[in-house]
Amino acid sequence: MNFIVQKAEIKNAIDIALLHKKEIPTGFISSLNLKVVKKLYESIITNEIIFVLENESTIVGFVSCAKNTGILYKKFIKKNLFAVAPYFVLKVFSFSFIKKIFETLTAPKKTKLDNEEIPELLSIVIDSNQQAKGLGKLLLDELENKLVEDKIKKYKVVAGDNLISANKFYNKYGFTLSAQTELHKGAISNIYTKILLNND
């Protein structure tokens, strides 16, 4: 099979959103309406870094990274507030939903290391039918090539301590556990960083 990694385009947002909801079903983003998730990925495609992995013109994976996660969320809300508001109406009185929004919006501050603002790998997703083929590493390499090209020396990723496979992946590919935090009550998240080589 031929797999191709390329920069995501706006037209890819719906496929990326569908893949996210399918492969990360328990996350906060997946609990949102598909149109909201699509809008979020349109914002990431426009303002941040995102690559898709295609197999015979079908998107089977992607990796996304934000230069500044806090600014990403603020820009998204400012630009899309009225467009996404109708999809939040039914959930606005849900305490658990409001709590998840608060946790998501405060996460960038809680994961800031030594008051240093560095890019964050937001998600790396491979279709479950295509896993265990080294495709995650393929996407990671493409992302890191782009970061090096942009003169980025270090970046981070946050993974729940209970996500065994994700933690193994980051440990395997050169990330160092730098800190731990409680993003969600009672759940520890690991903050990993990675130094990028070939930077002058």
Description:
There is one protein chain. With 200 residues, the chain is of the alpha+beta class. It has a 7-stranded mixed beta sheet with strand order 1-2-3-4-5-7-6, sandwiched between helices. The protein has helices spanning 13-23, 34-47, 69-84, 95-110, 135-149, 164-172, and strands at residues 3-7, 49-55, 58-66, 120-126, 154-160, 176-184, 187-195. A hairpin with a 2-residue loop joins strand 6 (176-184) and strand 7 (187-195). It has one domain: 3-Layer(aba) Sandwich (Aminopeptidase). The chain has 6 helices and 7 strands. The longest helix is centred in the middle third of the chain and has 16 residues, at 69-84.
Please provide a brief summary of the model.
With 200 residues, the protein is α+β, with helices and mostly antiparallel strands. It is built from six helices and seven strands. The protein has a single domain (3-195), classed as Aminopeptidase (3-Layer(aba) Sandwich), CATH 3.40.630.30.
